[in-house]
Inverse folding.
């Protein structure tokens, strides 16, 4: 636990002044009797002063329910339960106490994983045993976190670690930003094959030094977002996305999946297989990054936000265009789920509601093509086929079924999209991909490169204009400095901390030596 706390303190230090307090540190600074109940008021006063002069105070509890552990729980705004992801999810003594108590502080679960170990798995079991947990995080930890060094050697090691700035892309930095309300969310919109450009934009985003703390998406964005959230690797994301896109170009598989069109043209079996083969039986809870996607619940006529459950099923549901694929029956309640683009094609507002300070939203939705052919009151598919096959015939511009569906989705979300674009928290990105069709998956490399070049140019501008530094700035920094400036120090040679410590210090009772008569 000490190594975890020191690692987190290092990451939190990039956000603002951070103080780490343990029972040993309290006794060392305030005296060995500082934790005795008779000195409750003095300790409370000193801890309050620490919270005033530091942006963040990190309380590390003891391993059992000691008075200091109880104090930590009372002081905390957020209680972090730390577990090893590779171990069994059994409840500890302190957790049972938290479950039965009326502690109002937010409780979050952090599962630690070895950086060279297997990916997260079985998270649902941890959460099912802890219904009082509000959020969970998976951290890939450097080897030093699991080292069996003695406490002095561990502190010596981290003194060297603290000499360097923390990596903003590390999982501990992500946790630090989430805990302090400074997280950066990536939201990917729907738009068919145009979504391949999101792979390139994400690559440019990482190269531009911009971290991603949360991922959300709709339709194709749900797929691309899940690919990144699962492995946090842009190279693996590209390989897997390209493989899936190439699979989507198979006309033979589409023909085999045709069915009697009562609900849809295709049975959905082939599309289901293409998605499930990508994600297998992965659960959303097991993804490295916090992830959500959007579907349209046509049973309840509402928007659904999915943050747990079968990953491939909810990705598939979020990509289910009406007329092409049948609605997916939610395995939890049987509700019929359709493409999320019908209700929220760029869910930046959802990411904001989940705590993101900044939302980077990539829009790849359909744009209106106004120069379409006026074909009159009826349209023959045979006539269109002849026009396309005859090299001498005049070319006609008519929307196909997929393009009509994506336009319908886009029309439904125009007002919401404008609100998102105008919001202060959202950085809106629209790659130049209008020339590509909804089903142009065969042009994956070309479309992805367009996204990369656009992102590279844009993020370079962001760096030079201060947008990136503004993203990384603590949202409460100004308020903290105003509060700190309000403290008055009456002794010119002592800091506020020194004075508070002197006043609160509790000297141990001296035993008087009594000589016998």
């Amino acid at each position: 636990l000490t190594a975890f706390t020191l690692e987190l303190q290092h990451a939190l230090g990039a956000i603002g002044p951070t103080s780490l307090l343990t029972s040993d540190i309290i006794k060392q600074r305030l005296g060995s009797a500082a934790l005795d109940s008779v000195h409750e008021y003095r300790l409370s006063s000193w801890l309050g002063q620490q919270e005033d002069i530091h942006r963040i105070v990190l309380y590390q509890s003891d391993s059992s329910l000691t008075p200091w552990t109880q104090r930590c729980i009372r002081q905390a705004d957020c209680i972090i339960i730390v577990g090893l992801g590779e171990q069994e999810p059994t409840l500890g003594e302190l957790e049972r106490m938290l479950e039965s108590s009326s502690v109002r502080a937010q409780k979050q679960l952090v599962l630690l994983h070895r950086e060279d170990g297997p990916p997260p798995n079985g998270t649902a079991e941890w959460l099912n045993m802890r219904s009082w947990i509000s959020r969970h995080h998976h951290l890939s930890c450097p080897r030093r976190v699991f080292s069996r060094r003695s406490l002095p050697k561990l502190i010596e090691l981290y003194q060297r670690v603290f000499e360097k700035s923390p990596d903003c892309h590390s999982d501990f930095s992500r946790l630090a930003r989430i805990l302090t309300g400074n997280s950066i969310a990536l939201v990917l919109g729907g738009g068919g094959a145009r979504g391949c450009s999101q792979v390139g934009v994400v690559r440019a985003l990482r190269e531009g030094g911009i971290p991603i703390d949360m991922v959300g998406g709709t339709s194709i964005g749900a797929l691309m977002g899940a690919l990144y959230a699962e492995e946090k690797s842009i190279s693996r994301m590209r390989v897997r996305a390209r493989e899936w896109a190439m699979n989507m170009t198979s006309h033979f598989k589409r023909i085999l999946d045709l069915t009697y069109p009562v609900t849809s043209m295709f049975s959905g079996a082939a599309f289901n297989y293409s998605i499930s083969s990508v994600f297998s039986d992965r659960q959303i809870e097991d993804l490295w990054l916090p992830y959500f996607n959007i579907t349209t619940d046509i049973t309840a006529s509402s928007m659904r936000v999915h943050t747990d459950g079968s990953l491939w099923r909810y990705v598939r549901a979020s990509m289910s265009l009406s007329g092409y694929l049948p609605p997916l029956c939610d395995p939890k309640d049987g509700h019929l789920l359709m493409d999320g683009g019908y209700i929220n094609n760029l869910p930046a507002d959802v990411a904001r509601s989940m705590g993101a300070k900044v939302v980077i939203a990539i829009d790849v939705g359909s744009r209106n093509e106004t120069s379409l052919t006026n074909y009159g009151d009826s349209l023959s598919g045979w006539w269109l086929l002849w026009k396309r096959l005859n090299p001498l015939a005049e070319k006609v511009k008519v929307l196909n079924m997929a393009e009509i569906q994506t336009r319908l989705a886009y029309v439904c979300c125009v007002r919401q999209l404008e609100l998102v674009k105008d919001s202060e928290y959202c950085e809106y990105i629209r790659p130049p991909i209008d020339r590509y069709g909804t089903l142009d998956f065969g042009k994956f490399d070309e479309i992805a490169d367009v996204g990369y070049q656009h992102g590279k140019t844009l993020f370079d501008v962001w760096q030079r204009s201060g947008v990136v530094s503004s993203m990384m700035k603590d949202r409460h920094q100004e308020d903290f400095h105003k509060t700190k400036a309000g403290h008055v120090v009456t002794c010119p040679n002592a800091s506020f901390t020194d004075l508070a410590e002197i006043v609160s210090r509790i000297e141990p009772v001296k035993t008087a030596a009594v000589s016998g008569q």
